[in-house]
What does this fold into?
Amino acid sequence: MKIKILHLYPKEMNLYGDRGNILALEKRATWRGIKVEVVPYEPGAKIPSDINLIFGGGGQDSSQSLIEKDLQKIAPRLKELIENGVPALTICGLYQLFGNFFETKDGDRIEGTHILNLSTKAGEERLIGNIVIDSLEFGEIVGYENHSGLTSLGEGVVAFGNTIVGFGNNGEDKTEGARYKNCIGTYLHGPILPKNPAIADFLIERALSFSAGKEIELEKLDDGIEALAHESAVARAKTT
Amino acid sequence: MRKSTILIGKTIQKLSRLRGGGSALPGLVIERLDPNFIKTILEKLPHGVVVISGTNGKTTTTKMVTELLENEGLKVFTNKTGSNFVRGVISAILKNIETNGEFDYDIAVLELDEAHAVKFSEVAPIDYALLLNIQRDQLDRFGEIDYVTRCLQKVAEKAKKAVILNREDPQVCEIKAKNPVYFGLSDALVKKFPSDDNIIVHSNKKASDKPAKVILEKLSSEATFNIEQKIYTTPLEVRGIYNAFNAAGALATVKTVLKKSNNEKLITKLSEIKSAFGRGEIFTIKGNEVELFLVKNPSAFDLSLVSFADNKHDFLIAINDEIADGRDISWLWDVDFDKLKEVKITSGLRAADMALRLKYEDIPVEYIVEDLKKAIKLFVNSSKKPKRIFATYTAMLEIRKIILGKSLE
It folds into this structure.
């Protein structure tokens, strides 16, 4: 058994702690005896045919326009993978660009991949702070958000969770992130996966099941420290 | 400038000190009363104003430049308290100016963080700027690296005489200045410095080919500097590769301000200069050495680990997430912890997060103790080994208090 992770634009889109998400996937697979290969995707490269997990992080505003053109080239292939059920996690910048478009302050549009039916507009101020959301599937999720984009969900996608502490997609409708098939988009970094290991395990399980063509169930790990870190982060978020 | 301004400022300072208040209020009032106050005072200084900025190493480098210049016989005005913003500088001036307006200094050496350095450059004269590095700091405070680079570019444009630049930093070396002076590293040393451009892909870095006034050539138990093509080797009181590199920046600055200063004399003085507090400070507790290192962002932590992770010491890592530390602790995941074999204790408000980070690097942690006092007590009583503590800013301050209060029996 093996997971093969496509890491989108690791050089351009690697804000704060995204490495922790990759590390969480790698370790939690390796601890179970599952092989892991991370394929860094740089602009102009080919996407291997046997990818079964996609990860994309956030970047600085200037990075977003650096990858815009290349992203358009691979958008059809990414869309095909997601439609077929390949799991994906996209954070912040690439979450926005997995949507329809990002509209800058000047009204220019950076075209997205149209994988997630949502759109984002640059806001007046940055939404920054600890965030806790509640999701039916994963329970309480904790992280940190730092974005100026305001995202509105369209038809066919559901929110990843409801905001309990923090701003979420737009600071208004209490939604956070988006979910379509096995693709998760979210503003949560922190990074999200180590402190919310159920999401990491979901991605690994979906990746293996996709490749095997049948349901694969993961064995349980001792998540004592994960739970401790999760609890203390939720407590900090609620008191600061 | 009116003498009444100084009197009013000094009075407010006394009153707010009686109240136990901070240092911003007098500055605020002076800014309103006399917007040119800071300019009027500082532009009279015969050797001008040196501003030191960058993500890491400001405090210790400012200390070095100040002490080197003092050793050359200059009276140096500096903002020692770490109040590194415009109002803090005004407060420091008020403390040191005579009521008759006499400000008896030859030169000002000021530590300013990136955003405040820009504000300072808009209201005060700058003659020299020493720009150390641009690394990821607390994004929630400073925004993104591009923004910080633009800040320092503006500061560089305001420096009338020279800008001293780190030629090995990909952002800093691109900063344009009328009269740039560079400091750098040898090819062999440059590989030891992680930079944000290769957080994931560690490339074979080469020192940039810009000619440098001062180069840190070698570092073992002694440091070897190349000052204007002459080689000097000396032991240093400050420890760690980053401090030796900052020393090269300090030397380049002093050689730019005082062109005729004697190199041997500078090197002798440099060898005696100690780090600023909490930056490699050594305490002795129950006959054991305990060293305390401030770590506030991935590059600073990486460089501390390059110099100070070993098998001989017990380690404690204390992570807080107060505003001064940065609320966002994601940066811990960008630090290369693999140089540590094991960690005795993680502590601070985010002790569990730190332990989790180490778990995903397969580094065992013996205890998770959130309370710093309990953690330090357990730590110093746990073994006879010498000890090292890495701590974020507010954790560092609290640990110093605990250690200096010595309530550890």
